[in-house]
Design brief:
Length: about 425
């Protein structure tokens, strides 16, 4: 007999593993499923597959059954799908993993089970892609023999305040029973609120809308940065000034690019789905173009800076500091560092890369090695180690040009020390 309080989490990454640990802590029988055998082996030894101190500790005290055998999904009452939904090189949505996992879950689907999709998808995917695959693979009927819901994940990697337990959630169901079953599941493990949406597609739309909102607002300040560089206005100061308005303004910050598996990806799911239905999201598409262009802007700032010290980019030694897409984590997905590095190499610069969170992908092991002999540094990720850089430290290495891709250094200190300092919009 399958226990009511039993759940399988399919996909044990930044989203699935914290959810599995939370359900375990709330007394659920938890099966953690992943196709990555090496990851499952690590987890069975209670070791975290990615850098996160809190996860390592929680793993040691958890009773989760980790498995790479998809048939283990038959042992539980609820199955939650937390697998990646990337885009192809041409920015088209890539649902291959969702489709493969749906087939795998469908093959072992039992009567009475609830399937919840947490992966970020555009409206209609859960009902028009996942449901038919589940029904075809199982021979069962959704809404009758099994139940189906969508509850978009809202994990913010590296966030010390907001976590899987205290972030509000929205839930949509195929029909009333699916919805109520899913709401009951989340209300049993979260301290946050759970909002019922009127349909699967409304729940899917919430996630792509909230992340498109963020992408547009980042594009807005990035466009301001490109404009204000020419107007010799410090956009960082202007944003700080606008932030004193207690309503009607929400600060975002210009930078060398927008990375991660959410913000630069999710808008394309809506853009492409709407296009198929005859609508062109011009604003969303333009925001993507602006944000995708920030690596070029950053390299141009470097070329300007080197020219001011009579150096050309060709043959210059450039230290690229930061590979991950945001501070304090080791995730390089869609990071602007990839584009910045290829632009530099195309222009025959000698590039050294260093990221303390991603040493395996860095070309040098220490900050000192990255700076030795470098004419210029480009800060791509605002890791603490880079925010601590001072003019004294850099002048010891003979660095002349500082490109602050995250506006995370003290501009005036470097200018007063005689450096060529160029930020993003300052
Ligand atoms: N970025 C900027 N300027 C900003 C904010 C971010 O350039 O003002 C860049 C970051 O450097 C990074 C990228 O955008 O390269 C994404 O940054 P992010 O802070 O949005 O981090 P993510 O991708 O981890 O976004 C997550 C999202 N969470 C989910 O999708 C569940 C997003 O919805 C959250 O709003 C975001 O965390 C958050 O608020 O931190």
């Amino acid at each position: 007999m399958v226990s009511e309080k039993s759940v399988a989490i399919v996909g044990l990454g930044y989203v699935g593993l914290p959810l599995a640990l939370l359900a375990d802590r709330k007394g659920y029988f938890v099966v953690g499923l992943d196709t990555d055998i090496a990851k499952i082996a690590l987890l069975q030894e209670r070791k975290a597959p990615f850098r996160d101190a809190s996860i390592e500790e929680a793993l040691r005290s958890s009773a989760i059954t980790f498995s790479s055998d998809p048939s283990d999904s038959a042992r539980v009452n609820t199955i939650v799908m937390c697998v990646p939904t990337p885009v192809y090189e041409n920015h088209m949505p890539n649902l291959e993993i969702v489709e493969a996992v749906s087939r795998s879950i469908g093959k072992h689907l039992q009567k009475g089970q609830l399937v919840i999709v947490e992966s970020t998808v555009n409206p209609d995917v859960t009902e028009c892609v996942v449901l038919p695959i589940l029904e075809e693979a199982s021979g069962l009927r959704g809404g009758k023999d099994f139940y189906l819901a969508h509850a978009p994940e809202r994990i913010n990697p590296g966030d010390p305040k907001w976590n899987v337990e205290n972030i509000n959630r929205v839930v949509g169901g195929l029909e009333a029973v699916s919805l109520e079953r899913a709401v009951t599941f989340y209300e049993s493990i979260l301290t946050a609120s759970v909002k019922r949406m009127a349909s699967l597609k409304e729940a899917e739309a919430v996630k792509v809308v909230e992340n498109s909102f963020r992408d547009i607002n980042i594009a807005f300040v990035n466009e301001l940065a490109c404009s204000f560089s020419r107007l010799h206005i410090d956009v960082v100061n202007v944003i700080a000034g606008a932030s004193t308005k207690p309503f009607g303004f929400m600060a975002h910050h210009p930078g060398c690019g927008v990375g991660g598996h959410c913000i630069p990806v999710d808008p394309y799911y809506l853009i492409e789905h709407a296009k198929k239905n005859g609508f062109h999201h011009d604003l969303l598409a333009q925001a993507r173009r602006i944000n995708n262009d920030m690596p070029h802007y950053t390299v141009n700032r470097l070329i300007e800076g080197l020219n001011e010290v009579r150096c050309s980019l060709k043959g210059s030694v450039v230290a690229v500091l930061g590979l991950s897409y945001k501070a304090g984590i080791d995730d390089m997905r869609e990071s602007p560092s990839h584009k910045i590095i290829s632009l530099l190499e195309e222009r025959s610069a000698e590039v050294r890369t260093y990221d303390p969170y991603v040493l395996h992908a860095s070309t040098v092991e220490t900050l000192s090695l990255a700076l030795t002999g470098a004419q210029a540094v480009v800060i791509v990720t605002a890791h603490d180690e880079f925010k601590a850089l001072t003019p004294e430290m850099l002048s010891e290495y003979g660095v002349a040009v500082v490109i602050d891709g995250r506006n995370c250094l003290s501009k005036n200190s470097f200018l007063e020390a005689g450096f060529i300092y160029k930020g993003v919009g300052r």
